[in-house]
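Homework help thread (please don't just give me the answer)

Our assignment gives two proteins as sequence + structure token strings and asks us to describe the second one. The first is just a warm-up. Here they are:
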Amino acid sequence: MYLNATGYYIPEKRIPNEYFTEINGLTSDWIYQRTGIQTRSKATDEETIDYMSIEAVKAALPKLPYNIEEVDLIIFASYTPSDSVRTTAHVIQDEFNICKAKALYISAACSSGINAIETVDAFFKSGKASKALLVCSDRNSSYSHDNDPQAGHLWGDAATAYFFSKEKMDNKEARLVDVLSLGLGHIGKSDKSVYLDLEGDGIRMPHGKDVFINACTYIADTTSTIMRNNGYELSDLTYFVGHQANQRILKHVVKHLGLPQEISLSNIEELGNTGSASSLLVFSQNYDSFKSGDLICISVFGGGYSAGACLFCME
């Protein structure tokens, strides 16, 4: 399975830490020391999740080595959909006239993108599809509350688009070495640490410490597992992309794994936690700088709980 092209869309608007001092008394230094966030991306009213997703797809098209109408599988991955009936997958299908594709929606909190990659892999291996479009987007501002002192300052908005094929299509492509995911609804305070109440309370994180502890554990564990399962040492990694929830989590994981901090790629300082799109967004932002032979691991942790990792090798 190969990654043929990738694109992304990030709203231009940035909300600085100082904004939250006025809202709930949290100082810029307090937020930065605990999260590593200086600003976060925020969508305007016009920048709906459908709009951002469409723009992400458009950004990938100039690099796509085949006609988008050849895509036979569309997956929308998100935990902040605007419509769970006519999903963004269906909107994308209509917008780009991808008439012969299956269209579906996957949600596993911030692990949604990894679960979607695993689903694409399964469709390819079963012979049910040969070219796929994954759109992974979250518009956290649709459900977050700025006056929430526990998590209101964390969230950003963004969208990514990934085109995959079963067979290699071009010289410079990323080959999927492996992908794995875990459902973790049985551990810690998974039932109440992070939740999204669609009827009014929005997205909340009342037990951040439990999230922190388990994120550090499982991001490290899935990274070690996927490397070991494929005959690699951790030292073989060229780059590591962890879920962009908290810079302290990323630093802890990298230190625990014995990796150099400089191979850990991140965008959280500028964009905040962009949800399930976050790690895929970092990969997409850096994709053009990757070289042949580079080995890149993406490892995530999400509410619910959930976790997952995938390993790419640049051809």
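The one we have to describe:
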Amino acid sequence: MSQHPEGKVIRDMPGITAGDSRSKSNLTRHLQAWLREKLATALSASNLEDLKSSVQAIRSQLEASQVSAEKIDIYRNDFAYPTIAIESVLSDLEQILAVRTMERAKYYMLRLQKSTVEVKTNGINDINLNRWKDYGDIYTDSLWLFPKRDRSGAHNAWYWGNFAPQIPHQLMLRYTRKGDWVIDMFAGSGTTLIEAMNLDRNSVGVELNPDIAIRTKNLIDSLGNASFRPRLIIDDSTSVNTSDLLRISGGQKYRLAILHPPYHDIIKFSEDARDLSLSADVQMFVRRLESVVSNTLKVLDAGGHIALVIGDKYQNGEIVPLGFMCMNMMLGKPLALKSIVVKNYDSTRGKRGSQDLWKYRALAGGFYLFKHEYVFIFRHRV
């Protein structure tokens, strides 16, 4: 047996010899070459029985190897060799074995063969559409149910009001490519910036509160991936000098902007009068957020995307549809609404430990407790 560079054992199979010490990328390429060769042999079969026999042999060899459990890194693909997830290849082989005609079998075989040599993207992200089944961890539905927030790596939820790292993670995979620039106009504890580092994206964050910004910068500076080190500036996102933001990116426009503002005054984040959470009323909050959106559009690339993460609030016994008020404001800009995602959340820090009290209040007041927030996704029209 040979030892995978990450410690996984690979049982001997054609083309992989004991003691193989190649890098992960080279080993992946070797497996792809082996698979292409086997598929070509299967396609040369003259009848369905022989074709299925060859396909069964490929499947058995992949299943016998622990390579089949390998999650190949498909997000750092240089496209010189299309990467593949072996589990989805096994699914494709099962589909071929289930067909009843030679014509249909060859159709699926040719499609699988093509997906091992050609890359097709939508030009917005690095997702290889020829291997779309490989991306089981990318959400395409408008309901995002996260069992729990990601606390891996540098994500430790020390900041009251930060959002789940899964949100920027999903957005960056869908709306950026490796090396693109991402901006977060309410950087807070740096959730977006950390995810950008993890996914090899360049990023800039704007944060009003200097105490929070310094702590976030210290955290970011302690992390690896110096090639994609985020930049964090202390400023007011309603009036930030957008020329400075473009200077940081070397003049490149940002491909994705993420806005996670306060939900008006639900949490007061500082004593700074410029803080959106200190807005006198909802109308003022929306106007000030509009200034942030206008600044963001000055640095957002044409065809780029902007995501607003926000929830609603209760006031005087009534729901204030803050999310849709902000959505309507943004529809007055050169923006096309692409998706409205509803994301679940459990208890906030303010309500944690007092669920029974809040249930009583809901029963007494005739309302339902919020368990969701919105992710409004827009494309820049110009």
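TA reply:
I won't write it for you, but here's a hint about the kind of observation we're looking for: Residues 24-43 form the longest helix (20 residues).
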